[in-house]
Design brief:
alpha+beta, Alpha-D-Glucose-1,6-Bisphosphate, Chain A, domain 4, 7-stranded antiparallel sheet, 6 helices, 38% helix, START-like_dom_sf, Polyketide cyclase
C-alpha cells in the first residue's frame, strides 16, 4: 500500500511540474502560394460556405450536415456542422473579425467528440499581381491542467502532426480549387 501511495504521489507531482513547464499556448500555422490575385483568394476564403469544398476536416465526411446563420463573409456569420465521423464531430465556426483583402479571424467551437474552442485565421498576402501567399493557422491559450493535456495530446501522442497534415491538405485543396477557376 505504501508503494502505491508513492507511485500516485509521484504521478501527481509529475503532473504538477508538467503544468508549470508545459506551454500555456498552442500555435500552429502553414502556408502555400496560390496562382491567383489576392482579392480573388480573399473573396473566396472569407466565405465559410466554401470550406466544404477545400477544408480537409469537412471532406472527411461527405455527408456532414451543415447549417448557416447570418450573412456569409461578414462578422458574426456562423456555420454549424454535425457528423457521425469522429474526426469531424459536432461544432460551429464564427467569423470574429475581417481585415479587407487580408485576414479572416474565426473562433471554432467543438461540442463533440469533446468540448473545446480555439481561434483560427486565414491570412492572404500578395506576392505579386497574380500570386497570393495564404497562411492558415490556429492558436489557443490554456491554463493548468489543460496545458498538460494539450502538451500530451500534441507532442507525445502526435496530435499536432495530425493537425499539420490536415492543414497542409486543406491548403493544397484550396490551391486546386482556386487555380481551376
Amino acid at each position: 500500500m505504501k508503494t502505491f501511495g508513492i507511485i500516485v504521489g509521484s504521478l501527481v507531482a509529475l503532473f504538477l511540474v508538467l503544468g508549470l513547464i508545459a506551454p500555456k499556448d498552442f500555435k500552429v500555422s502553414r502556408d502555400i502560394i496560390i496562382d491567383r490575385p489576392q482579392a480573388d483568394v480573399y473573396a473566396y476564403v472569407k466565405q465559410l460556405k466554401h470550406q466544404n469544398l477545400w477544408n480537409a476536416w469537412f471532406l472527411k465526411d461527405p455527408k456532414v450536415k451543415m447549417d448557416y446563420k447570418g450573412e456569409d463573409g461578414t462578422v458574426g456569420f456562423i456555420v454549424t456542422w454535425e457528423s457521425a465521423v469522429k474526426d469531424v464531430g459536432v461544432g460551429e465556426q464564427e467569423i470574429k473579425n475581417l481585415v479587407d483583402n487580408s485576414r479572416v479571424d474565426t473562433e471554432i467551437r467543438f461540442k463533440v467528440p469533446m468540448e473545446a474552442s480555439f481561434d483560427s485565421y486565414v491570412i492572404t498576402e500578395s506576392v505579386d499581381a497574380a500570386q497570393t501567399k495564404v497562411t492558415m493557422g490556429m492558436h489557443d491559450e490554456m491554463s493548468i491542467p489543460m496545458n498538460v493535456m494539450s502538451f500530451l495530446f500534441n507532442k507525445i501522442f502526435g496530435g499536432e502532426d495530425h493537425i499539420i497534415r490536415d492543414m497542409d491538405q486543406s491548403l493544397i485543396n484550396l490551391k486546386t480549387q482556386l487555380e481551376q477557376k
